[in-house]
Amino acid sequence: MAIAGDASANGRNPSADRAAPAAAAANMLSGLRTAWPSLGVMLGLSCILLIWTGLYYALLAERAQAIAAASQNTANLARAFEESTLRSLKAIDQSLLYIRQAYRQDPAGFDMVAWARDTQSLTDMTFQISRIDRNGILASSNFAPNGSGIDLSDREHFRVQRDSAVDELFISKPVTGRASNKPSIQLTRKIFTADGVFDGVVVVSLDPLYLSRFYHSIDIGLDGLIALVGTDGIIRAAALGAGNGGMAVGTSIARDSLLAAFAHERAGTLLTSSSLDGIRRVESFRGVRGFPLFVSVGIAEAEILAVHEANRRSDMMLAALLTVLLLAVMTLVVRRQTDLKRARAALRDSQEQYADKSRLLEATLEAMSQGIVMVDAQHRPQVFNQRALELLALLPLDMKNGGSAPFEIDDPLGDFDTLLASAEPDRIRPNPVVLPLREIVSERRLNNGMLLEVRTRVLADGGRLQTYTDITARAAAEEMLGAAAGLDYLTGLSNRNGFGPKLEAALLAAQRTGQPLSVLCLDLDYFKNVNDTLGHEAGDTLLKLVARRMRDVLRDTDVVARLGGDEFALVLNGRSRNAVEHAARMLLDSLALPYLVNGELVRIGASIGVAFYPTDGATVELLLRNADTALYEAKSVGRNAWRAYASEDGLRERHRAQMELDLREAVETQQFTLAYQPICDTQTGQPVAFEALLRWNHKQRGPTSPAEFIPVAEQTGLIVPLGRWVIETACAEAATWARPMHVAVNLSPSWFRGTDLLAHLAEVLRRTGLAPERLDLEVTEGVLLEKSDHVISIMQSLRGMGVRMVLDDFGSAHSSLSYLRNFPFDQVKIDRSFMRALNSDRQARALVEAMLAMARALGLEVVAEGVETQEQLAMLRHMKCGNVQGFLLGRPQTAEITRQGLWASGGQDLEAQDGLIG
Ligand code: C2E
Ligand code: CA
Ligand code: CA
After folding, report:
1. Could you give the dihedral angle defined by the CA atoms of residues 116, 122, 124 and 125, in that order, rounded to the nearest 10 degrees?
2. Which residues are within 8 A (CB) of 246 and not within 5 positions of it... i.e. 6 or more apart?
3. Res 420: pLDDT
4. Residue 913 confidence (pLDDT)
5. Which pLDDT value is given to residue 528?
6. 525 with 567: CB under 8 angstroms?
7. HEC string of 372-425?
8. pLDDT tens profile 746-771
């Protein structure tokens, strides 16, 4: 396929070639672009990940920092707490040591109350100071200076000191005082006698709260914990946050990891939950130097992390916000990219589809066996295929230059645009056919003999689409098949074979329905001129155009046939006489319009003869014959005319039909006679021969001229028996004549079609005994037109028998002179039409002289017939014409009169005959 454009007229499609690299580039680009959204997504996701991991680590760090700060804090507090505890314990221990010293120095003067007072001023939470004697009996206290006698020997703070060899401060677990009924911690030291013997213990009972005093001076939050714990895990003193730690006093935290940690190190910090209240705290512990105690300061994790937690929450909120924002942006980007991608894919798809389509179109066009060319309104080729170039024998370059002849339309109807421009306006019918949007089909014979079918479609934009199909073979086949099927290959109409059955069927239908029917014979005028001057191709084209116009004028139910050459026959169904006459007029008008054949304006005309059923005949043959007769009538009045079969013709036909019947009867019943007309020597006037002329005395009409009935006998075949009778009778009669005159018999043309003429003649001559030399056979010119070889051989055989051959009516047809040379004649008979002209017409005289000269040159005898006047005879004598025949010399007479005349004149001389000539 080619799409002709600026860049291309080379039969290739450049847009398809260009499309390949462009598409690849586009693919690459779009590939890159499609990678973008995922990159964007990745970036977005990384951002989100970064934010969150960053936040996570930041929070982790912040948290760790908070914890570390808290640890530092608790460690410091623990140290301070240890210091404070140590100070308190040392102060108490110091007091105990002083008291024991005082007691040892002076047990009797020992004043417990005074010491208690002193000690209490030291520790305001010391609510009891007492001495237990070596037996464990409370010896004295600040509440009971002389003792209460309470046995405390089972108490740990006594037992441990009694049983231990080490002199050290003992700090008891908190116990409920038996005397005070308050929880207290007992701090004891051994008392020795002056000899250094164990003499009981001195006890300071301490409110655990004393130890807790410190707590209130520091901030350990609401859930903080401060505890003084023995290495046994029992809490000696405690404060829980801002609240009272009293409830915890005496409780064991042996199971807590705090104790386990303390077992390993003297001081440390750990994050742990307390078994006391289950709260997780950062706790720092620290051993109290020199005592089986450690302090623990804990701040609740929740409180440590409170700020951090708040920060974390807001940070996370921020991060979440950021994430949402990023996701939104990403979604947006992705959606846009997806949309873009989709649009791009759609574009690519449609591009591919277009490419596919155009490839398909190209393939289709190139696979077509037809050539195809599309031109625009300016006749510039837009699309064409290789096949078109081949068929039109064009080069791609021709296409580029475009608009050349091949794309012009061959409009079978005659391109009316052109016609209107060139034809005389009055010849165009009021409603000219405007070039319509239809398919115009025409055929074109190329120089190489190929027959192209050209189909042209006028497009809405004024362009044209033409297809070219090689129909050489098809046309040939169609011609054969069509002819067999009753179709005329050239025009597509019926042919003679096809027409007969159609007319027959139409006639049957008309007979059945009583509908009128008419048969038209149509003959083109001047068609031969077109054939001769423009050639047969043009003639063929013209015939097609004619057929097309006829079809356009007629109805579909009408039958149109080409019987051969430029003869057409039509059957018009169901139309009144008036309608038929109108149709005939329309046909003549349409066919008389000019035609455009091979670029030339051609004018022809037509003549039409019409026969109506049933008035002009009831059979196929009769209707056709009468239409034909009417056609000749039409032709005789002038061209471009139509004639209905006249009613007098109808009468004539009936007359003829009657004659046919009568003639048959006449042949059977021997109603014929022969008359004999003398043929005389011009100089002497003596008869040398008699011409036998048929006479029919019709029972009603009386004597009837052979000119009337011979053609009927000829047509019906009755001429054969009639002719036999004539020859036989004439020969038999001549054999009886007194003088051996020649007898001339007119031969019907049909004699020459068979071969039995010779045999019959020989038989007749033998039977009648007539010498063959006395028989002259007259043949008219028309007979010799056909089958000359056959005719010549028969003539030669006849002459071989001795019979003389005479060319009758010489000069009545145009090619007579050549007949004389070509056929073996002995005599010519100059047609009687020359005699009439002989007196007046010098030219006729010259012609007769020429004929005589020619006959003489060819060694032929000459008879002039139709001699009626003395002047004619004198002239012929002067011209030295051998023989004459005519009313002047003798009318045709009956056989009897002729016979008697011959007998009578048997001894007469020429003088007597002269009298006859008078
Ligand atoms: P034809 O052969 O030319 O015969 C001569 C015709 O001219 C005859 O007419 C005759 O009567 C007529 N004739 C003779 N002299 C004169 C004359 O001076 N003036 C005029 N005006 N006419 C003259 P006919 O007998 O009516 O015959 C007419 C035609 O019929 C013949 O023309 C011939 O062609 C044909 N015909 C006659 N008899 C036979 C026959 O037996 N067989 C055949 N096949 N045709 C015949
Ligand atoms: Ca004759
Ligand atoms: Ca004649």
Report:
1. -80
2. 183, 208, 209, 238
3. 32
4. 40
5. 87
6. no
7. EEEECCCCCEEEECHHHHHHHCCCHHHHHHCCCHHHCCCCCCCCHHHHHHHCCH
8. 998 888 877 688 899 999 999 999 99
Closest-lying ligand to the alpha carbon of 677? 1
d(CA 258, CA 275): 10
Does ligand 1 lie within 6 Å of residue 708's CB atom?
Answer: no
Helices (H) and strands (E) in the chain, counts: 27, 34
Amino acid letter at 507? Answer: L
Neighbour-count burial for 687-704, b at 16+ CB within 10 Å, e otherwise? bbbbbbbbbbeeeeeeeb
Kind plus residue range of the DSSP H or E element containing 138:
strand 138-141
Of 551, 495, 86, 518, nearest in space to 290 by CA: 86
Ligand 1 probe mutation, 697, 746, 828, 832, most atoms within 8 A of CB:
746
Question: Smallest Cα–Cα separation from 628: which of 569, 565, 564?
Answer: 569
CA distances from 275 to 24, 260, 842 (A): 75, 13, 171
In degrees, rounded to 5, the angle at the alpha carbon of residue 688 between the alpha carbons of residues 687 and 689 is 95
Cβ atoms of 185 and 172 closer than 8 Å: yes
Segments in 182-305 forming alpha helices (H)? 208-217, 257-264, 301-304
Q: How far apart are CA 621 and CA 643, in angstroms?
A: 19
Cα 526 to chain centroid distance, Å, stands at 48
The closest of 19, 17, 16 to 361, measured between CA atoms, is 16
Q: Give first-to-last CA distance, the chain, whole Å.
A: 97
User: Using CA atoms, how far apart are residues 24 and 32, in angstroms rounded to an integer?
Assistant: 12
Residues with CB under 5 A from ligand 3 (ion): 808-809
The single residue listed with the structure tokens 């025009």 is: 491
pLDDT at 104: 84
Q: Which amino acid is at 357?
A: K
For 193, the token pair is 């006698």
Q: Which atom of ligand 1 is nearest the CA belonging to 706? A: 30
Residue 744 CA: which ligand is closest?
A: 2
Distance 889 CA to ligand 2 centre (A): 16
d(CA 709, CA 365): 70
> On the CB side of 554, how many CA atoms lie within 13 Å of its CA?
26
Task: In whole angstroms, give the CA distance from residue 198 to residue 380.
Answer: 142
CA nearest 604: which of 553, 563, 545, 536? 545
Structure tokens belonging to residue 772: 């063959």
- Contacting residues for 550 by C-beta, under 8 A, at least 6 apart: 522, 560, 568, 570, 587, 590, 591
CA angle at 413 for the pair 605 and 561, rounded to the nearest 5°: 60
Q: Is 694 in the pocket of ligand 1 (CB under 6 A)?
A: yes
pLDDT below 70 — which residues of the chain? 1-37, 120-127, 177-180, 211-216, 241-247, 395-440, 478, 481-484, 647-651, 654, 755, 782-787, 813-817, 906-918
Give the pLDDT confidence score for residue 843 in this predicted structure. 79
Distance CA(157)–CA(163), nearest Å, equals: 10
